[in-house]
Amino acid sequence: MTDVILTLIARGGYLGIALLMALENVFPPIPSEVIMGLGGMAVGRGDMAFVPLVLAGTIGTVAGNYPWYWLGRRFGYQGLKPFVDRWGRWLTMEWEDVERITRFFHDRGGWVVFVFRFMPTFRTLVSLPAGMGRMPHWRFILATAAGATIWNCVLAGAGVVLDRNFGMLDRYVGPLAIALMVAGVGFYLYRVATWKPRGQR
Fold first, then answer.
1. The model's pTM
2. Which residues cross the membrane (predicted)?
3. CA-wise closest residue to 177 among 42, 53, 60, 6
């Protein structure tokens, strides 16, 4: 099973990695840990190279985060509220979540964009307050790219190590990757189906 997944990743190439990483930031159930981890295993097998893999993953991460930054910058704090109120079910968040992370962002400054690249969920959500706070484009892109580069290196490196030193686990990696993706999609659909604003819970 792992061979099949790695073959698909190798055929998709670096463009495929970039697209998957961009989607990961738009459609959260696609985990970057699986994408870059399997990419690292492809590096270990000689099907990909480490630096281009990380570069593609970073480009995809920046591309996937920029629409959220643009929405925050375009509509501003109050202008974004109707959007979140309307689409909160599909985003599985509500305005209170945006307010909380916005306060955190303003209290601690732009470095939060860099640090949050290492945290699930928040690494995408933090792009909204960065835009609403009108963080300069170049600083947002630089902070996002820097944090994403480090995180992608860690994930890809883990994949390389796994492939080189733990070949006996190969039979489990593919099913585990599929299980994680299915679980992620299932959890997202469950949240969409059961999501209610806090005031209605």
1. 0.70
2. 12-30, 50-71, 140-160, 172-193
3. 6
